[in-house]
Amino acid sequence: MSEPLILVQQEVGYRILTLNRPDKLNALNEPMLVALREAIEDAAADETSRALMITGAGRAFCAGQDLVERVAKPGETMELGVGQEKHYNPLVRRLRALPFPVIAAVNGTAAGAGCNLALACDIVVAARAAKFAQSFARIGLVPDTGGTWLLPRLVGDARARGLALLAQDLPAETAANWGLIWKCVNDDALTYEARRICEHFSVAPTQGLALIKRALDASPTNTLDAQLDLERDLQREAGTMPDYQEGVRAFMEKRKPKFTGRKGNS
Fold first, then answer.
1. Residues 6+ apart with CB under 8 A from 25
2. Residues 6 or more apart from 233 whose CB is under 8 A from it?
């Protein structure tokens, strides 16, 4: 019996999804993309999951799309947009819309769609040996999986153009210094650091974090006035949450808050 393409590990308050084609550097094929989307939906439906970690098995995080699926037969032209419309675009939209934080633990090479899958997560922690590559230009393609939207917002236009047009490997330490990712850690500390962040979120005010994500996602296309109005509206919503009341009580009582992460008292 073959190994599952996505390994799912349930922890207290969060889940770990591991891309599991290590012999192919976790390159994404259609069955793997389907399995990943299903695993994400399962996590979203689980009320006990208040964070999600995505990592890779073996020595790579993800080498991007498995090009074996992208070779046209003689006399045919491959319609690459179908894969984006069917798999990658819905995947990125779902990741960004999840009502809890998503952490990418990048254990090795993250290239092409694999790079942008990681960058679509809320927090990216990378091992020092990891590398990030917008490898699309090497084969005459355009960065996808949200890359052309994410890169300029993370590192600015000049660096985004360099990464996309030159398609050079970017060491994890440089990625952290540029602000492309949250943090670079020693290789043997990656799992500990990523789990530590997940454990932090597993007892955090989850509904409030979801509202923060909504505000940050809206800011690039909003005017200042529109963003101020959105902050007002989201703050009103946050103020109705039990976790806000608990947070205030805990502050006044000088104790650690006990957040439920739920909208109501149930």
1. 58, 59, 60, 62, 63, 108, 109
2. none
- Axis crossing angle, helix 157-166 with helix 147-155, rounded to the nearest 10: 130
Q: Which helix (H) or strand (E) holds 52?
A: strand 52-56
Structure tokens at 206: 């989850």
Distance between CA atoms of residues 252 and 22, nearest Å: 50
Q: 112-132, pLDDT tens digit by residue?
A: 999 999 999 999 999 999 999
Are 193 and 106 in contact by the 8 Å Cβ rule? The answer is no
CATH code at 6-202:
3.90.226.10
Helices 224-239 and 206-218, axial angle in degrees (round to 10): 170
Structural domain spans, the chain = 6-202, 206-252
Structure tokens at 258: 């006990």
- Is the pTM above the cut of 0.85? yes
All residues at 6 or more sequence positions from 100 whose CB lies less than 8 Å from its CB, including other chains: 49, 50, 51, 52, 201, 206, 209, 210, 261
Lowest mean pLDDT among 27-31, 136-140, 262-266: 262-266
What is residue 92's three-state secondary structure?
helix
- Rounded to 5 degrees, φ, ψ at 72 are -75, 145
Cα–Cα dist 140/117, whole Å = 20
